[in-house]
Write a structure and sequence with these properties.
Layout (H helix, E strand, L loop, with lengths): L5 H19 L2 H29 L2 E4 L10 E4 L1 H21 L4 H4 L4 H20 L3 H20 L5 H31 L4 H11 L4 H18 L8 H7 L2 H26 L2 H7 L3 H19 L5 H21 L3 H32 L10 H4 L1 H15 L5 H15 L3 H27 L14 H19 L2 H15 L3
Antiparallel strand pairs: 1-2
Helix pairs in contact: 1-2, 1-5, 2-3, 2-5, 3-5, 3-11, 3-15, 3-20, 3-21, 5-6, 5-11, 6-7, 6-11, 7-8, 7-9, 7-10, 9-11, 10-11, 10-14, 11-14, 11-15, 13-14, 13-19, 14-15, 14-19, 15-17, 15-18, 15-20, 15-21, 17-19, 17-20, 18-19, 18-20
Length: 493
Amino acid sequence: MLMSHLPALVIIIPLVCAPLCVLLRGKDWAFGVAVLATWASFVCSILLTLQVSELGTISYAMGGWEPPYGIELRIDALNAYILLIVSGIGSVVVPYARNSMLLEYIESRAYLFYSAYLLCLCGLMGVAVTGDAFNLFVFLEISSLSSYVLIALGSDRRALTAAYQYLVMGTIGATFIVIAVGLLYQATGTLNMADIAKRLPEAGYGNRTVIAAFAFLAIGAGLKIAIFPLHQWLPNAYTYAPNVVSAFLAATATKVSVYILLRFVFSVFGVDFSFNSLPSAIPFLALAVIAMFIPSIVACFQMNVKRVLAYSSVGQIGYMMLGVSLVSVAGLTASILHLFNHALMKGALFLVLGAVFYRIGSCRIDRMAGLAKQMPWTMAAFVGGGLSLVGVPLTAGFISKWYLILAALEKGWWYIAVLIVVTSLIAVIYVWRVFEAAYFRDPPADLCNVAEAPLSLLLPAWILVLANFYFGLETSISVGLAERAAQALMGGG
């Protein structure tokens, strides 16, 4: 009986536990509730993925009202993949938060942090499971509002400015998305995404309302994804947010936004309209290539490693959009696979930086000089994550880039394959700057006796680092799920 309600439980558990953290007040009690909630959601996500693999798409009618008249939760291969990413990262990050520097600044209000964290988790997973376009917007706002709060908790006063900038840009993006939903409702008379997809051909793809809806959706999702040049909010948000928040958002938030674009462009509007009736592939390709280069070059000149990783994330989003622009099963497989692999590598790297900040109070490259001798396990974890970010063979990062190169060659676009290799070499530059400082320089005079990070911070980071190598060797799960999701999207499923 319980198994039949998994689509609802995966979002209800964190939603109910968020106010429970506030009611219990105590730091330890709130931490316990947050751990139980995140891991319970992760288990539900795993079970849902197994069900989808065995039974196919799962439809769950809320309140017994059948779709399209009632609210539907709909889980297919793509939704299940996103759920695994969000709940998995959320489960690993929560134990890390207990001893991170964040709680030293807001120890008396730790329960508020856990409450906002669970609300953000609930919103992100709600976006993934809902089959209703308006409820997708509602869940997106739940995750956005809570993420603004989480970013503003940073110890640096600039965190408030970063949160406000993210609020303004995020609100514009969400407004564009809700306008698109309204236009689709006007054209089709329904909010159920599967039903919209069926009715759009009747409404007529030449309908200016439908075309306007596509434009609003693409721009709104682009803002949320932080695709170049709509990325201005992301570097400051990731740099000045608490380290645990940077790790969580970098690994999940933009991935869910990419999911929104994939769901609407391929499932709701359909491949024929999105890429044949409208010339969308060329703009997506141009923006993707620019995003792969310019932010990566900018990252090479940053002195704060969190800022380096933030600009790197914008560049990595370019890889995801490149796969989308190829409009093929191979390209989509590479994009969806990179959602998963990028979550692992960026989650690991930001968690490592949190451990560094815990000991030296800074994430600047010059302050990390000689740190490898004093914090060998911490910096070894950074090396592991950095190798995956570059795309070195035997790491998860290599797998998704390899699939992207194969997809480009399948289209006959060898020059795109060359560009992917070149941008990977740029990544070598900004990752090497950190390696060189930590391993080949002497430490600053005031940082000669730095201790290794505590196990509570190292363990979550190493779990994600080892996952980068595991999924670089064993690809049947990550690639298999990505391929099934890509085939369903290209088939209109």
